[in-house]
Each structure stands twice: as structure tokens, then as C-alpha cells.
Write a structure and sequence with these properties.
The chain is an alpha/beta fold. Helix content is 40%, strand content 18%. The two termini are 37 Å apart. The structure holds adenosine-5'-diphosphate and 6-O-phosphono-beta-D-fructofuranose.
Length: 334
């Protein structure tokens, strides 16, 4: 599937550390396993940091041996736990974190997480000089520099399985359902899930949406005798409660719609085969890049190739949403 980077070992690093940070995603465990075993196989010791940056700043880390990562490739969540840590945004705290890594003889760090975690990773290496490599771990698939993130495929399939079931009821009772999927700032999950489940409409934060359009679509559907059941996929958006607000507004327009919030079921569960392969390839590649002397990059997938993108690009650039998927979903309903 992916060709692994062929780089020569070019550093004196004898120990590395790995952590998961931000929202957990299915596939973080196979990534940890891959990092650990790839490093151990090259004679490099590995430390696992508990609870992301929260653990790093208090030195909550332990040495990982090969057997510690046995039997996790199929498990959701993360063996190393994850957390959000406001304190890490403070440069003084980051300096203390760098000291802790140095005290343990750790010559490189691999951070698995979303764009926030990778921002922290960039600042840490930029300020301390300790080599850091990032891996894209989030269900949201909203990271610049990679077509795919670890956990996205699993979340997509979890949401789809749920929506297929909701559609059974929608059809049996001729009802409309507004189904909310995750994505506070991004509609990548919503747009792909929407096309895959045959949604009547997809609502995402990146594209302006008018309630009248939705009402009109639903009214038209009825008028044309195309049934009165339907699934509208809604990305959660930045302000909680969007989907309930939409349902209330629709009601004022004379339409009745049920609301289903899929929530955190999308973050859990056994990773799909796709996510396991992706995580395994990216994990081992991150070790290769680190030991070859690279730093301040994220290892991702672009056009089916394993690539290295500067972390600064990840911090500064947004991955665009493909608006064609949103249009396609509607087109396939005409
Ligand atoms: P994700 O990594 O899933 O996008 P967050 O945005 O919540 O999740 O970020 C996870 C953690 O990364 C934060 O709790 C914080 O510890 C660290 N982080 C995020 N943004 C920054 C920043 N600007 N500077 C330093 N650390 C950051
Ligand atoms: O980053 C993944 C994500 O699941 C987002 O889609 C969602 O908005 C957010 O995390 C929710 O995170 P939490 O419930 O952990 O605050």
C-alpha cells in the first residue's frame, strides 16, 4: 500500500518518547505499537508518556518494552491515555518539559494528535532543539499536509453504521432525521459520511447554509412524491446545540424532524483495517525520520505516498474541505 521511507540512520539518539494528545482516535494504539517496535528493533529505547502534555510536564513516563504493546493493535482508545493541557501553552512550562526529556536521556519525541497537539510539538522543538516528529491522530481529518488521519476511517464507518440503522426507522415511519456527527470546526466527517449514507443534505461549518434551502428541499421532496423520509447530516459546529436549534427552526417552518447526536461513539471502537495499516506505516516511518536526523515535521499521507510536512505548515495552514461532496450528496437526490 504505502512505500516506507528508505533513509539512513544518522543520529546518536539512543532513547525516544511517544505520547498521544488531544481527542483520542481509533488507531492510536497501533501507532504506539509501531513506533515502539520500530525503535526497539533498531536498538533504541522507548519511553511512553502518560496523558499527553499533562504527563510530560510532570515527568509521568515509563519505559516501554515490546510486550507492553502486545495485544493492542485491535483496540480503540490509547494505551498511553490522552489529555488536553492548557499549561503547555506557556513557554516556561514547555521549557520544564524539555528539561524532563533531557533528564531521562530522551533524544527525540513522537507526538500523535490533532492540529493543537502538533502546534505544541512545533513549539517544543523550536524552543528547545529537541527533535520532535508529529503524527496526525484525530477522527476529524482536518490536518493540513495529509489526506488521511489516524482514526478518520473508523469514525466514518462507525457513524455510517449508526445512520444506516436510523434510516430504517426514518423509512418505516416516513420521518426526517437530523443526525449530528463530530466536527467542531470541520465538515470532513460530515461530508464523507453524508455522501456514503445517501443523505438528503449535508450541513458543515465551512459552507454557508440557509434554513430555507433545507425546508424547500424537504417540501419539494414531498411534493414530487419522493417520500417524506430523509437523513440530514449536520457537523456539530463550534456552538453546541446547533442540531436542536435547526430542528426547532424547521418546526416553525411546518416540518418535523427527529434529532440524533452520535457523539463520542465516533471516537471509540476497534480501528478499521485501513486505520491499522495507516497507523502502522506512519508510526514506523516517524521513527525512520527521527533516527535519520529529521525534526519539526509531521509524517502523513499525500496521494498515497508517505510524506514529511514542516510542522509550521500544519500550524499555519488549513486543510480545505472538498465542497463537491456536499453538492454531490444533493445532486444524487434529484
Ligand atoms: P487536538 O490535538 O486534538 O487538536 P487540542 O486542540 O485540544 O486537540 O490540543 C491538544 C493539546 O495540545 C492542548 O491541550 C495543549 O496541551 C496543546 N496545544 C494546543 N494548542 C497549543 C498551542 N498553541 N501552544 C502549545 N500547546 C498547544
Ligand atoms: O478532535 C476530535 C473531536 O472529536 C471533535 O470532532 C470534537 O468537536 C471534539 O473532539 C470533542 O472533544 P471532547 O469531547 O474531548 O472535548
Amino acid at each position: 500500500m504505502y512505500h516506507l521511507p528508505q533513509l539512513t540512520k544518522n543520529s546518536s539518539i539512543s532513547a525516544i518518547a511517544v505520547m498521544t494528545s488531544g481527542g483520542d482516535s481509533p488507531g492510536m494504539n497501533p501507532a504506539i505499537r509501531s513506533v515502539t517496535r520500530a525503535a526497539l528493533n533498531q536498538g533504541v529505547r522507548v519511553f511512553g508518556i502518560n496523558k499527553g502534555y499533562s504527563g510530560l510536564i510532570i515527568g509521568d513516563l515509563f519505559e516501554l518494552k515490546s510486550h507492553d504493546v502486545s495485544n493492542i493493535v485491535q483496540r480503540g482508545g490509547t494505551l498511553l491515555k490522552s489529555d488536553r493541557c492548557e499549561a503547555f501553552k506557556d513557554p516556561i512550562v514547555r521549557r520544564q518539559a524539555a528539561e524532563i526529556l533531557k533528564e531521562h536521556g530522551i533524544g527525540g519525541l513522537i507526538v500523535i494528535g490533532g492540529d493543537g497537539s502538533l502546534t505544541g510539538a512545533h513549539l517544543l522543538t523550536h524552543e528547545s532543539g529537541i527533535p520532535v516528529i508529529g503524527l496526525p491522530g484525530t477522527i476529524d481529518n482536518d490536518i493540513y499536509g495529509t489526506d488521511d488521519t489516524i482514526g478518520f476511517d473508523t469514525a466514518l464507518n462507525t457513524a455510517l453504521e449508526a445512520i444506516d440503522k436510523i434510516r430504517d426507522t426514518a423509512v418505516s415511519h416516513e420521518r426526517i432525521f437530523l443526525v449530528e456527527v463530530m466536527g467542531r470546526n470541520s465538515g470532513h466527517i460530515a461530508s464523507q459520511v453524508g455522501v456514503a449514507c445517501g443523505a438528503e443534505m449535508i450541513i458543515v461549518p465551512e459552507i454557508d447554509f440557509k434554513l430555507e434551502t433545507l425546508s424547500f428541499t424537504l417540501a419539494n421532496q414531498r411534493a414530487e412524491g419522493r417520500g417524506s423520509s430523509g437523513i440530514i447530516v449536520v457537523a456539530e459546529g463550534p456552538k453546541p446545540g446547533l442540531t436542536y436549534r435547526l430542528a426547532r427552526q424547521l418546526e416553525l417552518d411546518g416540518q418535523t424532524a427527529g434529532v440524533c447526536i452520535l457523539g463520542h461513539i465516533q471516537r471509540g471502537g476497534r480501528p478499521t483495517g485501513h486505520d491499522r495499516v495507516l497507523a502502522s506505516c506512519l508510526g514506523a516511518s516517524a521513527v525512520t525520520y527521527l533516527l535519520a536526523g529529521f525534526s519539526d515535521i509531521m509524517v502523513g499521507i499525500l496521494n498515497s505516498k508517505i510524506t514529511a510536512t514542516p510542522l509550521l505548515d500544519i500550524v499555519e495552514k488549513q486543510k480545505p474541505l472538498n465542497p463537491e461532496l456536499v453538492t454531490l450528496a444533493q445532486l444524487l437526490h434529484k
